């Protein structure tokens, strides 16, 4: 298993069209996002990365939406995603589309999201699956291998569990990693998503931040006799003789 953190500087994707079959992938991701955000409520929605900012979230009940990325005209806030300029527990919904694939320290990125999310806040995250036809293609394409670092959805879920997230929804699609237009490719895509989701190229995860509250338990144990009596306490004072020279 490869180490998550790397010293290499990775160039993030700035547009969906830069991805393989990006237009179709954006449409599919938009469909899953529309279904997920209808169940999200709160005050602040944060889109991290340029791919997240290019998705439409007008159907979400959260009116205040922040577009944040390192660069890009769609972003209203430019900053380092691994050091977000937000206070703790202030964001109700966070979207992270294919940012882990191009992050030099995905653990730090997820820790920052965990820090700024409110209790019961929601994280919507997507990325590429290395155990897929697309993942196999990257092994033989030096350019893609240098630009993207693919983590399996089960590994991402383990990271989220360690941070205290509860997985609400997990879906995988893009089985043949191309746009299925003809009837036979569509049939293959449907069969792959239904029976072989482990080998689909893209994962889509919806997780909720959970924090276990500590409830104090009162002990029923009691001493048979009081430990401290009500008698007055006397102390002995020692008198030392001072030697006068």
Describe the structure.
By secondary structure, the protein is an alpha/beta fold. It has a single domain, classed as Vaccinia Virus protein VP39 (Rossmann fold). The chain has helices at 22-37, 50-53, 106-116, 133-139, 142-147, 153-162, 183-195; strands at 44-48, 64-69, 77-78, 91-97, 117-128, 165-173, 202-209. Strands 3-2-1-4-5-7-6 form a seven-stranded mixed sheet, sandwiched between helices. Helix 3 links the parallel strand 4 (91-97) and strand 5 (117-128). The longest helix has 16 residues, at 22-37.
Number of helices: 7
Helical residue percent band: 25-40%
Whole-number total of structural domains: 1
Main beta sheet: 7 strands, mixed
What gyration radius follows from the Cα positions, in whole Å? Answer: 27 Å
Strand order of the largest sheet: 3-2-1-4-5-7-6
Specify the CATH homologous superfamily.
Vaccinia Virus protein VP39
Nearest-integer average pLDDT: 84
Number of strands: 7
**Structural class, from helix and strand content?**
alpha/beta
Which regions contain 5 or more consecutive residues with pLDDT less than 50? Answer: none
Please state roughly what percent of the residues sit in beta strands, choosing from under 5%, 5-15%, 15-25%, 25-35%, 35-45% or over 45%. Answer: 15-25%
How far the N terminus sits from the C terminus, by CA atoms, comes to 81 Å
Shape: globular
> Per CATH, which architecture?
3-Layer(aba) Sandwich
Which fold does the CATH topology refer to?
Rossmann fold
């Amino acid at each position: 298993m490869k180490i998550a953190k790397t010293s290499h500087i990775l160039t993030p994707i700035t547009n969906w069209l830069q991805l393989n079959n990006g237009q179709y992938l954006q449409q599919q991701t938009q469909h899953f996002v529309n279904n997920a955000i209808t169940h999200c409520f709160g005050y602040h929605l944060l889109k991290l990365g340029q791919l997240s900012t290019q998705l439409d979230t007008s159907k979400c009940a959260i009116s205040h939406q922040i577009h944040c990325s390192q660069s890009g005209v769609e972003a209203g806030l430019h900053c380092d995603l691994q050091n977000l300029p937000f206070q703790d527990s202030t964001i109700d919904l966070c979207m992270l589309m294919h940012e882990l694939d191009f992050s030099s320290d995905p653990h730090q990125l997820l820790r920052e999201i965990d820090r700024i999310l409110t209790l019961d806040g929601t994280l919507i995250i997507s990325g590429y699956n290395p155990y897929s036809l697309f993942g196999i293609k990257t092994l033989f394409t030096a350019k893609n291998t240098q630009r993207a670092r693919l983590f399996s959805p089960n590994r991402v879920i383990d990271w989220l569990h360690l941070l205290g997230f509860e997985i609400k929804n997990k879906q995988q699609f893009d089985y043949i990693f191309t746009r299925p237009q003809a009837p036979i490719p569509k049939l293959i895509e449907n069969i792959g998503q239904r029976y072989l989701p482990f080998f689909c190229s893209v994962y889509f995860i919806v997780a909720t931040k959970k924090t276990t509250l500590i409830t104090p338990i009162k002990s029923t144990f009691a001493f048979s006799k009081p430990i401290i009596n009500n008698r007055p306490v006397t102390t002995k004072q020692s008198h030392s003789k001072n030697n006068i020279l």
